[in-house]
Sequence to fold (279 residues):
Amino acid sequence: MDNIFDFRLTWQLLSLDFVLSALLVAAVLGLLAGVLGPLIVSRNMAFSVHGTSELALTGGAAALLLGWDVGNGALAGAIVAALVLGLLTRRSSEYDSVIGVVLAFGLGLGVLMLWLYKGRAANKFGLLTGQIVGQDFASMALLTGAAVVVLAVLAVVYRPLLFASVDPDVARARGVPTTLLAVVFAVLVGVATALGVRTVGSLLVLALMVTPAAAAARVTASPLRATVLAVVFAEVSAVGGIVLSLAPGAPVSAFVTAISFLIYLVCWLFGRARRTALA
Fold:
């Protein structure tokens, strides 16, 4: 128990290159999650994020089995999953069922590939729960390049995408290409989710992509303020989770989820108290 609260050891570890690299990766992931999160929440895509993360696991497992880069494999798996989900779901009423079908098949395939992989068990475990030691130069280059692309594309489509998210029927009547935007946004979410698999792990990347935005939605209805708060909450969760995980050497995802849930709980209590005061 003493090691869990060993601040001296944590401070020493913060000077290591791989830890600094992990913190930089976490900061980029926090920015992506915070910017995309409010749109994910407004479009009711939390289950889609979960499904995409599990299929990123399948891509990472395939890369692990074939001896390829795990990050590239996870990215490819997430993009394929996003395209499949976007093309198969034409009506919102069938969205959850299609995600469930694709998720079950992809996750089963990923489990089989992990079983076939005879390498180090730590590599398998890292896909599930994340690991900060995997942040080498290639990982950082992939993350940075993909993040720039995601933010650039989002900047181009943000206004019509926000319109389609808030009122899809009116947006469709005004000629906004809602179906195309849905596919594009699904791919952007897939890329961001895949980038979080190596750090947070496929099982709990949902906490970073959805929880900060859900917390922000509890305290404001403004899209701009919600985005700013979501970025702040995601940064605190991602960076803080890595810092707290250093001394005990525990999986990063456990601390990321704990911090994000605590933030959500505080925002939920604040929102409830404000509604009570206004009633």
User: Anything to note?
Assistant: The chain is about 80% helix and 0% strand.
